[in-house]
Structure formats: structure tokens, C-alpha cells
Amino acid sequence: MHRNFRFGRALAAASICFALAQPALAVDVGGVKLDDTVQLANQALKLNGAGVRYKLIFKVYTIALYLPEKKTQLTDILALPGPRRLEIVMLRDISSDDLGKSFMEGLNRTSDQADRTRLLSQTMQLGAMFEMVPGLKKGDMLTVDWLPEEGTLCRLNGKQLGDKVPDLAFYNALLKIWIGAHPADTQLRAHLLGEVT
């Protein structure tokens, strides 16, 4: 009996070690595997929500929002301290002109005139980043990270695009493209806010 108890404890300990050694669980969104958690700036971020952006009937990209803790309200997300990540995986080819135009239209739609004026230099810096890329191909991954004390960092397939863009207000303006009061896609907004699974 004592031997069985020791064997049971050893088996339980081995099970825990095995579970801890496993990579983060992945969810499938639009055919793209997304991790439940990612590491950014020495912090684990949780998948808050994810969905597919459609243009007419075509899938354009899968987008995921990672935060230090799950939130369902825009105001709570904007107030969160720590790093954040938007992860965009292309589901079709798109030119950098079209991508840049989509970002700019989104910023114009979700920001008021005062914010657009205040963030003009950062917006121009973002536009210059898109000019560095001839286009995005199906399967390409664009990450847009907020790093506290550093700024917004964009990477394409892991390679940094341009310099970091300072000002949390700029990153928040980017977030509002998808989860603000006037998003391009209200269904996608609901998915990113975790209101729809």
C-alpha cells in the first residue's frame, strides 16, 4: 500500500512536470494557429480575443489581441499598464499601399481631428514603415507591440520595421481601428474583445 502511494505521488509529479513542459495551447482562427499566451517584455500576455477580417466575401487576415489580463471594455484595455500585442497573419496577398491605406483610413475613422493633429508625426512614421515593404504575402505575420518606456514596435515575420514610435496615445489610436467606437468590422471587434468565442 505504501509503495502504491509513493508510485501515485511520483506519477502525479511527473504529470505536472509534463504539463509544465508543454507549449502554450493554440486556438485555430481562420486556419491560423494562435497561442493562448505569448511572451513580450518579460511578461506573459493572454489571448484576449481573435477573429478574421473580411473584405466583401474574402478573408484578408486573422488578427489577435494579447493583453496582460483579459478585458472586454475598450476603456479598461486602454488603461491597462504593461505591454500589449496585435498579431496579424495575412490570409491573402496585399500591397503595402493597400495595407497602409487601410491603417490610415482606420485612424481617420476612429480618431478626432485633435488626436490626428497631435499624432501626425507618429502617423507619418508608420506610413514610412509600410513604404519599406513591397507587400505582404499570404502567411506573413505582422506584430504591432506596445513596449512600455520604449514605444510601438512593428515586426514583419520577426524582423523589425523602422524605429519604435513613441507615445502610448498612438498605440491606443491603432487599437481603436479594430476595437474603438467606429471599427471597420463590428463582428471582428466583438471577437477581439472576447465577447464572441
From TrEMBL:
Residues 1-26 form the signal peptide. Residues 26-194 form the Chalcone isomerase domain. This is Chalcone isomerase-like protein. It comes from the Bacteria. Pfam families: Chalcone_3. GO terms for molecular function: intramolecular lyase activity. InterPro entries: Chalcone_isomerase, Chalcone_isomerase_3-sand, Chalcone_isomerase_sf. Keywords: Isomerase, Signal.
